[in-house]
Amino acid sequence: MEELDLLKKAWQKDSHSYEQISESEIYTMLHKKSSSIVKWILIISVIEVLFWTAISVGYNTDEYMKKLHAENMIVYFKALNFVNYAVILLFIFNFYKNYIKISTTASTKQLMQDILRTRKTVKYYVWYNLGMIVVSLIAGFVIAFAYNPKMEMLKNKIANESNYYTLCVTIGIMLLTIVVFVGLFWLFYRLLYGILLRKLNTNYKELKKIDL
C-alpha cells in the first residue's frame, strides 16, 4: 500500500482541485488492487480443487471399500462426492462472478458492496470445506469401525464392558482427531485466504474514507 500512502499524503497537502484528482487516483488504485485480489482468490480456489481431485484419483476409494467388503457404501460416497463437487464448482462460479463485477464496477459504493460480497463468499466457502472435512472424517471412522476386521477386538471389548470406558475412550480419540484435523485445515485456509481477505478489508476501509 506504499503507493496509496504517498497519494494520500499528497492529497492532504495540496489544494481542493488537486484533491479531486487524488481521490480519483486513489479509487483507481484501490479498484485495481481489489480486482487483483479477487482474481487470486479465484485462481487459488481452482488450484485447490485440482489438487484434491488429483489426490482422490490417486487414492481409489472403491478398491478400499471392496477390501472391507463395504461395497454397499460405494454409492453413498459417490453421491456425497458428486454433491461436494457441485457445491464447490458453484462457489468457484461465484468467485468468477465477483471478479467480473469488481473488474467492471464504476462507483465507490458498488466497489465496497462487491468487496463485502466477496469476503462473505470466501468465508462461506471455508466453512463449507471445514464442514465437509468433519462429515468425511466421521463417515471414515464409522465405516472403519463397522467393516474393518481389525476393529473386531475393539467391538468385542466395548460389547463386554458394562461401564462403557472403552467406548468413551474411542469416541474421545475420534473427536480429538477431528478437532486436530479441522484445526490444521482452518489454519491452512486462514493462511491461504486470510491474507487476501485482510487486504480486501483494508481496501474497503480506504474506500469508506473516500465515500464520506
Automatic annotation (TrEMBL):
Transmembrane residue ranges: 37-55, 75-96, 125-144, 164-189
Keywords: Membrane, Transmembrane, Transmembrane helix
Protein name: Beta-carotene 15,15'-monooxygenase
Organism from which the protein derives: Flavobacterium sangjuense
